[in-house]
Description:
The protein has 20 helices and 24 strands. With 547 residues, it is an alpha+beta fold. It has three domains: 5-144, Alpha-Beta Plaits (2-Layer Sandwich), CATH 3.30.70; 199-411, Reverse transcriptase/Diguanylate cyclase domain (Alpha-Beta Plaits, 2-Layer Sandwich), CATH 3.30.70.270; 425-547, no CATH class. Strand 2 (55-57) and strand 3 form a beta hairpin. It is globular.
Amino acid sequence: MTPTRLLMIDVADIQDYIFGSNNLQQNLGASELVTQATSRWIFEVLKDLEFAHNGEVTGEWLDYVILNKKHVAHELDVEVIYAGGGNAALLFVKEEDCRKFVRQWTRRVFDEARGLQPKVKSTAIKWDNEALTNKLDELRRNLHGGTPAAPLLGLGVTAACVFTGLPATTVEDDKLISTVVKHKLKVRKNADERLHNVLPQVKKANLDFIYDFDQIGTADEFSYLAVIHIDGNRMGKRRIKFLEQFNASEKNDACVVAMRKFSQTLQQAAAQALKNTVDQLLEIKGRDPKDGKLKFGQDKKIVAPRIDRVERIPFRPIVFGGDDVTFVCDGRLGLSLAAAYLQAFAEQTLADGEPAYARAGVAIMKSHFPFSRSYELAEQLCASAKEWRKDICRKYDLTDALTMDWHFSTTGMVSDLKQIRKREYTVPNGELYMRPIVLSRPQGDEARRIQEWRTWPTFNELVRYFKEDEEWKNRRNKVKALRTALRAGPDAVELFWHNYAKSNERLKKIAPIAYAVDRGWDGPKCVYFDAIEAMDFFTSLKGNAKS
Length: 547
């Protein structure tokens, strides 16, 4: 028997569903529901309907693995092409089986993940005469069009949910909550279990993860939260290009296997990158001999929160498992952990034989700032990094690049990123910031061709210079004076040297902009301002500044 019906599943407005609350446990629960609804629940519904399928329980972090069982040889009722990360695609032998599955799956989503907005589309497919790639493209276009769902806010009620304003249906921790919140909180433990399955080294180190935004930061010293949003580069285009070789009906079976392989290698790359990132974080922990507290960072200033007698790492992934990743951490670790993840991700190879490139946006805000606003800024920063990637690739004829952008907010006020930079970082001489930056410094023949100083190694080098060099270390007034001079422009920097310099002292030389040591600027871009601003918001990881 051959497939006659192709079904595609998607989830609308995932970001709003996951990040619309300032309660971390709700964010974690929402992320877990998206994962389960588009992976585990699919296989459980197929099992309940007694359909023969190609899933197998593994006990791994996704609970199920999709096998390359051919529908003809194994007489399957349904073949799952891929599933997870908010979408899925399935092939059904019978149209009626497809209808049964959609009814039961959507009912489960409604019953157990209220507020999630599933989108399903199916189409007939003539397996021996129509190319699967064309039918998938047709379904994608249909899924991404149409009118957004308008949820029923409720009829007349006597009480509203304290988090959402929706009708309250139950009480949790003496708070009136809606069914949407109830469902998110119900899967908190599942989210913890899945995370520990991915990152077993945390428990091996007798540590756990934070579960509340208030657990990030050091009381009375530093209380800033970093929200890191990472997105893969050109993943949709790469997938389409990879599948072009199967754009014929006689290659449909091979196309299914190839799509699955691309999806699985992406999931594996994301999981491995997360593991490597946490390994680097664990390498910079140590027990303070004075107070006995566990601390993180090269300077050991980030205290590990101790909750319920368990010490915890100041880091928590919220969305993970694919090319779209979001995690939060202590503000001082934000840039280093984002860079570590990007570098670890690029060390993995996907099914098309190319590295897994990505970009990141890092928003560092006060811990009590509305989380949804922080995430929105992180998304804008990620989009800015994407534009810089396009510019850098076009400028130097590169296939791809790792890029990152960030913003520190000490006031708690946030507007559009372009407005922030125009208001706070633009002066008559140009732009004070070097951001966005590239995560690698060209080497060999490429280095002779590419003359770019806006790189992660350069930024690391400059921050370390201002924090550790004898001429600058512990001399806050001098650093502030230089920052003021940089804001005033190159002429003011030269005047600064006249007032402060000892003998032939100048700023650190960085190829290819050694000439900036006297005036501090490279044309319309300030070279040193970002490094000075980052001094209090940055701690490096071991090997984090690698080229």
